[in-house]
Write a structure and sequence with these properties.
The chain has 227 residues and is of the alpha/beta class. It contains 7 helices and 6 strands, in the order βααβαβαβααββα. The protein has one domain: 3-Layer(aba) Sandwich (Undecaprenyl pyrophosphate synthetase). 43% of the residues lie in helices and 16% in strands. It has a 6-stranded parallel sheet with strand order 3-4-2-1-5-6, with helices on both faces. Bound molecules: farnesyl diphosphate. The site of farnesyl diphosphate has 18 residues, from helix 1, helix 2, strand 2 and helix 3.
Length: 227
């Protein structure tokens, strides 16, 4: 495919509803969501997408039932461990975005481990937002700038964000029919094309990604100018 987005960001929503529809516990929806994550990574490699950012856990998600939060905190390191070889084979670099220091030690250890294991790869940059909040990213950036006594412009400010070297997303996808941003990448999506689909995240297939990319290709990106 020509003219594919360089960077796709996804708000993976609807795991809970997917499970509820089947009379399953919410965690089963997250397990099924992991399969959709695998499919999207494979498809991104096929289409030569360079950056894929997935919203896996927001700072607000701590307020969910304890069982669900604990289940997710066990799931993240487990999936990382299971996927490391596949990521290496496909030359995928895995990185994380968010207030990582507030995550359980066991989760943090695995995140830093996989970042180290995959740091020399660049076929696909896979970025997982964990304990992430767009507002907090901005507040953290402002505080860093103040501590360093810096007056900022756009270029300098970008340097204070969590992952300054990552280009802004070209396309943001949200699944499950919700039409909002929910505190995701507030600064970075200023000129991102938005795409919403009713498909629940665990049902998201390669064909859904193709549909989103095709819709993106029809958009006229103007960045505030006249084409
Ligand atoms: C949103 O659905 C989904 C989450 C908050 C968790 C997403 C996490 C995964 C798919 C696991 C990914 C793992 C790795 C390592 C990348 P929801 O629970 O808000 O669904 P609902 O709105 O239907 O309740």
């Amino acid at each position: 495919m020509d003219n594919v987005p360089t960077h796709i960001a996804i708000i993976m929503d609807g795991n809970g509803r997917w499970a509820k529809k089947r009379g399953l516990p919410r965690l089963q929806g997250h397990y099924a969501g992991v399969n959709a994550v695998r499919r999207v990574i494979e498809a991104s490699l096929d289409f030569n997408i360079k950056y894929l950012t997935l919203y896996a856990f927001s700072t607000e998600n701590w307020d969910r039932p304890k069982k669900e939060v604990n289940g997710l905190m066990r799931l993240f390191p487990k999936v990382i461990e299971e996927e490391v070889n596949r990521l290496k084979t496909h030359k995928v670099r895995m990185r994380f975005l968010g207030r990582l220091k507030e995550l359980p030690d066991k989760v943090q250890e695995k995140l830093y481990w996989i970042e180290e294991q995959t740091k020399n790869f660049e076929d696909l940059n896979l970025i997982i937002a964990l304990n992430y909040s767009g507002r907090e990213e901005l507040i953290d950036a402002v505080n860093k700038a103040v501590r360093e006594g810096k007056v900022v412009n756009e270029e300098i400010f970008k340097g204070f964000l969590y992952l300054p070297d990552i280009p802004d997303p070209d396309l943001l996808i949200r699944t499950s029919g919700e039409v909002r941003i929910s505190n995701f990448l507030l600064y970075e999506i200023a000129y991102t094309e938005l795409y919403f689909t009713p498909t629940l995240w665990p049902d998201f297939e390669k064909s859904d990604l193709i549909k989103a990319i095709k819709a993106y290709q029809k958009r006229e990106r103007k960045f505030g100018k006249v084409n």
